[in-house]
Model the fold of this input.
Amino acid sequence: MIEQQIMAAAQLAVKVLYGQDVPEKMVQLQKTRSEFEGNLTLVVFPFVKMARKSPEQTGQELGEYLVANCEAVSKFNVVKGFLNLSIADAAWLQLLGTIDADPHYGEKTADEHAPLVMIEYSSPNTNKPLHLGHVRNNLLGWSLAQIMQANGNRVVKTNIVNDRGIHICKSMLAWQKWGNGETPESSGKKGDHLIGDYYVAFDKHYREEVKALAAQLVASGFSAEQAEEKAKQEAPLIKEAHEMLVKWEQNDPEVRALWEKMNAWVYAGFDETYQKMGVKFDKIYYESQTYLKGKAKVEEGLQKGLFERHDDGSVWADLTNEGLDQKLLLRSDGTSVYMTQDIGTAEMRFQDYPIDQMIYVVGNEQNYHFQVLSILLDRLGFKWGKELVHFSYGMVELPNGKMKSREGTVVDADDLMKLMVDDARRVSDEAGKNADMTEEEKQEIARIVGMGALKYFILKVDARKNMLFNPEESIDFNGNTGPFIQYTHARIRSILRKSEGTCSSPLTLSASLNPKEVELIQKMSEYGAAVEQAGKDYSPSGIANYCYELTKVFNQFYHDYSILNEEDSQKKQIRLVIASNVAKILKNGMALLGIEVPERM
Done:
């Protein structure tokens, strides 16, 4: 790499000129700012005291040494304490050859000794279908897994399904009361959608009960606020749901049979959605299997004096020494809470895999939960407890406000994906660019473009931020969008198809390059650093923004210079190799986001 060459030469220059050995970290090399001549800039200030000269004089001496002794440097200029270096065309062409020779340039491959990173994402409830919030979660989790793998880690992708609890009982009870034996087959609905309808139905009837009961309580002397709070607890429906939960925990055969039947419908629906979304898992855990492990682990902690039992039989963790409060781990009736289940899931995972790092992809409303979980897992002896990573992301909002599952105001994931694919097909049909394709090809490209638009729009935003999702903005063939990048890849592939057999000579290192070609090679060389930074920051948006920047630079080059009509065969060959590798890096980079790029559009 050019940077390593220059850094080594700069260390040697300081040794020769000033008699000082300097560590590599002292050599600060950065991209030259656009308003100055040069490609890379060496910060001179760290060497000024050693040289006992001004920054300008020090820069001049270092520049002269590098031009004379480092083949990569062709010329230089000094601006105050900054040494701007122009890189020789031969060095750029050599770098282009290196990029061209590696199908996965900039990415690392894990060996059997590489760290094992487990990433949990999705975490759906079996009482409703996946919605827009889940889409962001799944896309972030999948992309993060690809990025961690490209950084040389072994990765295990896991999902914890919330398949038990009061919310599940609400759907079950509603189906029992008002379902009349309805099934996915009899209704023509996906199983997760069907169950979601009953979750909404439960809430509707429950609110009616609360309203009626609260009115009675107000009439008997309660304040409106007291009446509503009491009505929420005393409404017959919620009491029945709690009774069903207790029966479930007691392994009541009738309740368990209903639970298994309805969950099977939901899982079939989830699988279909995951497939369309392009995500999958290496291992799926179920809370119905982990909560007992969690209870056992809490009891073990109780015996060791890590937790305490209150007079009502509930079990708590005292975290006041950590600057937090007390945390409930088991209710007085012995039922578990989410924290207990997460402890149990951690226990199972630790038994299944030699985890080096655990990353939880969960929304930022759970920040406190994971702060507590980290402390509890560390207390219980999990080696990665203290270092667990909560990949906390913001909420997705719509132009018309927030989503609420129980009120049925969510944007369903299946509906959203269909809308995106349909929109991509409409835009493509209107542009008339697919006229020579078969119907099957048209629909496949609409799927790739529609899903690419959705994924890119969500992943280009810094995950920590709340975001506003607007489907219309995402299907745009100009600007910072998935289709813009996909279209550029398809354009390059078209150029390469047309060029087949016309030029196949090897790169000539003595050839000259224009500034746009240099800019493209330099931008491509930054892909590895972008992948590494995205891994350190847990940031798919870093990859998205890199792909957009590379696409912009290529399009500027393509606007200014012809590839296929270039008469000089040497220049034509260089441009074809550059174009081919831009396409390769775009394809690999977009794959880290879970986005496909078409060969034609």
